[in-house]
Amino acid sequence: xxxxxxxxxxxxxxxxxxxxxxxxxxxxxxxxxxxxxxxxxxxxxxxxxxxxxxxxxxxxxxxxxxxxxxxxxxxxxxxxxxxxxxxxxxxxxxxxxxxxxxxxxxxxxxxxxxxxxxxxxxxxxxxxxxxxxxxxxxxxxxxxxxxxxxxxxxxxxxxxxxxxxxxxxxxxxxxxxxxxxxxxxxxxxxxxxxxxxxxxxxxxxxxxxxxxxxxxxxxxxxxxxxxxxxxxxxxxxxxxxxxxxxxxxxxxxxxxxxx
Length: 259
Known about the structure:
The protein is an alpha/beta fold and about 260 residues long. Helices cover about 35% and strands about 15% of the residues.
């Protein structure tokens, strides 16, 4: 099985990963002041969630707008909650392939934290697909990380385990993905013809609320890229993750990933 055809980062399909995604969703709710939908939509009829993961966002939107059809697309649909509302429809598909939806269908297209899974050459057609399936005057809402760890007080440098984690993560994906895509979203959508494009970096003191999520993500996101793509020995990998997790627990470093 080739890396190109595997899941986003070949994360083990487990309840543990679903729990991590749910915890991540709760952290993002804090970051965005519990706002699920940013654009001024009062009565959406159809919403598309690209890469719905554990379906936390999609289910909340479906509950909030019971008359709205919410379609979620993911390459691993096994994590659909058992108690999902009837207006949530999960579909199995690969976001690196052309969309099969008809044009002018959705009031809102939502894409969150899928940047590391979109192939580098796919980005222009991915954006064209999003714009094609939007209704006239529809909206796009994208959220993504730039996985280069930074610090407000300059404590993170090239000797830091968190910076080494970031550098290796970006290097591992760089051949086929665009790990810097989060920095380019505004330019890419403006170039594609979208209007009223805004980029809003978020600053929020999430601290302890995000601690457990980061601890798990440092390992789960990097196991395959580091050991298989970079050829890192498992002992070296485990040592780097151990040191990065220690640093992530240190509030004095004021470490963060740009969102």
